[in-house]
Fold:
Amino acid sequence: MFRVLKKDSSSRARLGIIETPHGIIETPSFVVVGTHAKVRELSSQDLVRAKTQLIISNTYHMWQKLGDKGLRKYPGLHESMDWQRPLMTDSGGFQVFSLGFARELGGGKVAGKGLLQQENTPEENLVRITEEGVFFSVQDESATGGKREMFLDAKKSVWIQEKLGADIILAFDEPTSPLHDYKYNKEALVRTHRWEEESLKAKTTNQKMYGIVQGGLFEDLRNESARFVAGLDFDGFALGGSFGSSFGGKEKSFNEIDWMVPFLPEDKPRHLLGIGLVHDIFMGVSKGVDTFDCVVPTREGRHGHVYISNGRIDLTKGKYHRDETLLCPDCDCAVCTVITRGELYQLFRDKNPRAGYLASFHNIYFFNNLMAKIRQSIAEDKFEELKSKYVSL
RNA sequence: GCGGCGGUGGUAGAGUGGUCAAUUACAAGAGACUGUAAAUCUCUCGGCUUUAUGCCUACGUAGGUUCGAAUCCUACCCGCCGCA
Structure:
């Protein structure tokens, strides 16, 4: 399923190819997030034009949207999305965190500035975790409008992912918050490992399944988890949970990856879950990661941020009012060759949905193109050179 | 000319004796966003500074009543409507 074509001489970066029934994925690659079987704003043709190789959709959200009945007769993501290239699905594990402790404790999964400086306003934890699985509190759509609980476990997650039919599916896991202590991480890790074994057992199709390595911000737990998960019969490995991005400065960030990768087999692909700022991608690639998924290009695009070769600009700022330079002058995407910053600024001001569409399109192109540059740089033994150019920004 | 109504911060528009530098919305400014309950959220938004249960100037203009007025009274100015 996976072939390493070339290894970088001065880092763990590698050039590879993942083979799937819907075509190959050249790695390192960016994975566009299309949670609800749709990448917000963009059509599948747009995604092809933006050089997208792989899209990740979500088990939890599709389950909520379709229900068990709907899933039974679902034609599958490829048909539903009109996307004949590779697809993967997340197991719903992330929602165990994002709807649970992420709300209750505040802050995201990446430890850093936000976690330490801004006070968190706690929101209701919508998740109840048990040893067997997870109860999600959801709004009841019936007349009463009350709340009810829906149960998701490894078996159910795999069943849903089989109905969705992605090429690559993920084991069910429980990511922890960077605020969780060692004791909790250890307990959660035991649970996750058991759920992962159950995920493998539950699988009845020939879809490829990735195991997920957890362990929070703790080196020995990351080691232990990587060893354990690497010992199971997975087709690839995903690195999940919390990361300490800015502790110890940017260069030292994402140490967690170094605590896992050495224990993972060289001949299986590695996916870094939900990480994808430009800096982080370079970190990941140099540490041996093959694929990255992240909402940043689409979400930030909708919010007015556009990635350009030397950073990021905010097109909602007044200073772009009469800016006649092209969106990203050295980008050759379908948007940047036509749209000026002033025009996009105006669309954002008018709250025209086209603004988010154009920015998302460019951002996705930007990230996919960046990955292409990274692949080329590895092929030409110039990865470190490219990395230093972007990471120093 | 007479009568009625109204003039509030960048705009719209609340407030009709004290808790009002003034609800709210929009505009404006700043920030956040990393396996998407996010086309979202947070903060600022009269001036000044020691950024504070601080000082000043402010609700058309000028006076007055009152311990105290954006709020009541008087005059004037301006706008809209009706009648001449």
